[in-house]
Amino acid sequence: MAATQLKPCLVLLLTFSLLAFASAISRNRIKSLNQIREVNRKGPYIGLITVIATEEDAFFASGSFKPDPKFPFIDLSGRRFRFGVVRGRKVVYVRCGEGMWQFLTVLTKNQTNAVAATQQMVDLFDIKGIIHFGIAGNTNNSMSIGDVTIPNQIAHTGLWEWLNTNGTLDSADVAQLEIGDYNVPKGNGTNLLGHIGYMEEEYYSVAGEPNVAESLLWANISLQWLQLASNLEGMKLEQCVNSSLCLTERPKLVVGLRASTSNIFLDNAAYRDFLFQKFGVSSADMESAGVAM
Questions:
Q1: How big is the chain by its Cα radius of gyration, in Å?
Q2: Which of 170, 177, 175, 182 is nearest to 195 (CA)?
Q3: Averaged over 108-133, what is the pLDDT?
Q4: 154 vs 31, which has greater pLDDT?
Q5: Pairing of strands 281-285, 160-163
Q6: Who is most buried in 11, 31, 73, 280, counting CB within 10 A?
Q7: Is 80 exceeded by the pLDDT of residue 8?
Q8: What's the number of CA atoms in the CB half-sphere (13 Å) around residue 216?
Q9: Which positions make up the signal peptide (predicted)?
Q10: What pLDDT score was predicted for residue 6?
Q11: Count of domains in the chain?
Q12: Residue 197 falls within a domain, yes or no?
């Protein structure tokens, strides 16, 4: 009898808990929407996006970011969007997290990291442009540690079709990686890992026809922003962090090179050289194409 009475109580308690949780979400949503309206009255803003905590720490340690005294931040979908000024320019800053894609669970759809943070920023706030900055890997031997590159084009080089050795690649693939070419010692070039074809993105744009995708390999950076960036070329960059930690040569800033993005942390010299030879890219990271697209 006691067990029979307990079941309805548990169901009733669970129902009330869910209603209270839903009510709390609604209140938080209304509060966030009101805050968004308030900060947008002060816009437009320049959007700033970094990826990892060390990049964020360095940005804040520079002292260039001055938080807004009334609305220093708004928390949305687990991310903290911070408002303030950098050298007199109004900015909204967020740390997006590593990678273009963040896998959640088998029951949910893939959620983007860089893409989601960028789209959320553009959709909710009065943004006139976005600057994404942080650490990237070098694929160009003419570049050195500490150099700064501002690319004019970015490719997503992580969209593959991976086939067996006898598989036929799609004619639309933009590049091909034969894994057997990297056998050691070199033999007949056959490797059970087969070969990889590099595919283009299916890109949907507000400037295009609705529900019709455009095949896209290179995402172009806005010409106006590149022209502004070109004014930075030749600027003197610091060679030393302190008196005991210095680069072997003064770093340089280069505008107009190509970059690549994939959900792969790249620390492999052979693959780095492949990317440079096939795509002509000078840097590799895990987020830039997601922000640009």
A1: 24
A2: 177
A3: 83
A4: 154
A5: unpaired
A6: 73
A7: no
A8: 20
A9: 1-24
A10: 45
A11: 1
A12: no
Cis peptide before 8 (omega within 30 of 0): no
pLDDT in tens, 134-145: 999 999 999 999
Tokens of 266: 């790249």
Q: Among 78, 52, 75, which Cα is nearest to 133's?
A: 52
In a domain, 285, yes or no: no
Query: In terms of residue numbers, what domain contains 122?
Result: 37-132
pLDDT band at 100 (very low <50, low <70, confident <90, very high): low
Please check whether residue 138 lies inside any domain of the structure.
Answer: no
CATH number of the domain enclosing 113:
3.40.50.1580
- HSE at residue 206, side-chain half, CA atoms within 13 A, is 4
pTM of the model: 0.83
Q: Is residue 84 part of a domain?
A: yes
CA distance 277 to 287: 21
Query: What average pLDDT score do residues 158-180 get?
Result: 94
Contact 291, 156 (CB under 8 A): no
